[in-house]
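Input record (one chain):
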Amino acid sequence: MSAPRDGSRAEKSDRVPKERRVGSHGGGADMLERVFVRPVLVLLAAVLALGAGRVSAASHRTANFVIEAPTDGQARKIGDAAEQYRHNLAVEWLGKPLPRWSRPCPIKAQVAPQLGAGGATSFVFDAGEVFGWTMTIQGSEERILDSVLPHEITHTIFASHFRRPLPRWADEGACTTVEHPVERARQHRLLIEHLTTGRG
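The corresponding structure, as predicted from the sequence alone:
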């Protein structure tokens, strides 16, 4: 390389644009960012987004239930409805309200319009006692309040009264009768389908 005519020092240049030299060849900091940092950030964002639907933001306690739900308003609505269903359905099925439980039943609610309606309630029977309640419910707020919650509360009423497992057909059949008419109609269609296709 020859010296410049103006007396300044010459610098070697390969005439490759700087940004191309830094990142396009797969080396250096840009490669580290493309191969490692960006995918990790995308994965972290996805995990946080998925987890956000599962994290309960509010809790509410009633005499017989402790509710975890996405919002305080939803937790209160679910708690109030749970107590009302517990009282009304016990009177309807047993002829009298249930006494207060020694420990509240925890209810974990996932409330979102796109979730299918459903729930699960578990408990332990031992020496004629019922304990270890847990209830999980999910669905739109409307379906939780008019179908899922009364269904699951009915399971707790039967467990409290009979203090032993019921045959599944009797337990689920009775619990289905307290759901919203739309849900009962869906169950009726499934029953007919199973009976007419030899699956019932």
